[in-house]
Amino acid sequence: MYKIAKEFQFDACHMLDGHNGKCHNLHGHTYRLVIEVSAHLIDQGSSADMVMDFADLKQIVKKHIIDKLDHAFIYYKNNSNESKIAQLLQQMQRKIFAFPCRTTAEGMSRYIFNELKQYLPISSVTLWETPTSYCQYSE
Ligand SMILES: Nc1nc2c(c(=O)[nH]1)N=C([C@H](O)[C@H](O)COP(=O)(O)OP(=O)(O)OP(=O)(O)O)CN2
Ligand SMILES: [Zn+2]
Predict the structure, then answer these.
(1) In contact, 16 and 82? CB cutoff 8 Å
(2) Residue whose CA is closest, atom 18 of ligand 1?
(3) In angstroms, how far is CA 39 from the centroid of its own chain?
(4) What's the superkingdom here (predicted)?
(5) What is the per-residue pLDDT for 55?
(6) Looking at residues 114-130, what average pLDDT do you find?
(7) Smallest Cα–Cα separation from 39: which of 55, 50, 31?
(8) 135 is a catalytic site residue
(9) Pairing of strands 96-99, 72-76
(10) Which domains does the chain have, with CATH numbers?
(11) Per residue in 33-68, pLDDT tens?
(12) Could you tell me which residues come within 8 angstroms of residue 126 by beta carbon, excluding any fewer than 6 positions away?
């Protein structure tokens, strides 16, 4: 079994409504995302001796995650304050993205894992929220 990984970066803004600290304010992060996939090697064709082509990995993560989150206001769809801001931004045709959970590094990592497992033999998601804080999610 092999593990390969590819790193991505995206910018997004969020707030953690109800957080007992500075993170209840609207603020932004340059997120670093590492997607790790695990599988045996492909035995023939143009991807022989690869787990998968890094180019294919990049295209899948970009399409299903990065393009949706980059430069968006990301928010918890069940939170009324966060949803009010999202609604206002949407009226201005600004980019928003609704999560089914709070936009913590933990919640986002799990969401990204569950989205990508439809398309990839994903083994872990590592999401860096700041240069010193990250969450790793695996199942
Ligand atoms: N377990 C978690 N704790 C916190 C999260 C989180 O997602 N999971 N998120 C936040 C805030 O979003 C905040 O932006 C990040 O907090 P922090 O790492 O404290 O940010 P700093 O800029 O202060 O980082 P330093 O590198 O320490 O300067 C809060 N907590
Ligand atoms: Zn934050």
Answers:
(1) no
(2) 133
(3) 21
(4) Bacteria
(5) 97
(6) 98
(7) 50
(8) no
(9) parallel
(10) 2-70+105-137 (3.30.479.10)
(11) 999 999 999 999 999 999 999 999 999 999 999 999
(12) 33, 34, 36, 109, 134, 135, 136, 137
CA of 28 to the centre of ligand 2 (A): 6
96, two tokens:
């928003």
Q: Ligand 2 center to residue 50 CA distance, Å? A: 36
Judge whether 3 and 37 are in contact, CB under 8 Å. Answer: yes
Say if ligand 1 is within 6 A of residue 106 CB: yes
Structure ipTM: 0.92
Residue of 35, 34, 33, 23 lying closest to 104 (CA atoms) = 23
Amino acid, res. 31? Y
pLDDT digits (tens, 9 = 90+) for 60-97: 999 999 999 999 999 999 999 999 999 999 999 999 99
Instruction: Give the number of the atom of ligand 1 that is nearest the alpha carbon of residue 129.
Output: 15
What pLDDT does residue 52 have?
97
Nearest-angstrom CA–CA distance, 73 and 32: 17
- The side-by-side arrangement of strands in the sheet containing 96-99 is 96-99, 72-76, 2-14, 27-39, 122-130, 133-137
Q: What global pTM score does this model have?
A: 0.96
Length of the chain as a residue count: 139
